Amino acid sequence: MKGYASFCPIAKATEILAERWTLLVLRDMLQGSRRFSDLRRGVPQMSQTLLSRRLQTLEQAGLIARRPASNGHLEYHLTRAGEELRPVIDAVGHWGQHWVRSRLTPDELDPGVVMWAMHRHFALESVPLGGFVLYIEIADVTQLKCWWFVVRDGEVDLCWDDPGHDVDISLYADLLTLTQLYIGDLSLLRARALGKVEIHGPKDLVRDMPAWFPRSKFADDNPLPVV
After folding, report:
1. How confident is the model at residue 221 (pLDDT cuts 50, 70, 90)?
2. CATH number at 106-221
3. CA 153 to CA 111: how far, in whole Å?
4. CATH of 9-99, one of 3.40.50.720, 3.40.50.300, 1.10.10.10, 1.10.10.60
5. Which residue among 118, 165, 182, 210 sits deepest, i.e. has the most Cβ atoms within 10 Å of its Cβ?
């Protein structure tokens, strides 16, 4: 990105942060992504070549550092400078949800993106003891239709192939409804009442589902009334 030839700290920061996709890469790293493959899942529209270039730029700017993982592969970790962007990026998200949020056009709906986002945002403090396996089937897509969330010991694993565990609770909905649930446009209770979702499982697990079902951290900033 061409510089602004200015001493202004906002200009200097913008030279690094305002390139296309950069804030989204940093968003995913702040949510815990370390591997290249995980970053690709968070921003699938971004090519591998461009992602590699952005990571190189961020490393050169001192925002991230490459480190070997226990399996010998490289991981990307935020430096102190990168970590200090957390309140900045959170503020951008809160502002965007309140003032310029999406009206959810078809080109913005992606099953892989919403499932990957959901797996980051289970309310783990409200998950029942022992955890569970949640199966989600997206009714109106042909690819990436079936998903499993394995929630155990304070961690959430997302699978697009059957992990072989017994399913404790199942949810069926279309892609728009799932996205609305995640971003806070629609409550789970209201979606069931309207027949937009179908849920099967033990009564106590279904009853407590609104307490742990994943929602965006920005959902409460939604200026629209949640139905």
Report:
1. confident
2. 3.30.1050.10
3. 26
4. 1.10.10.10
5. 118
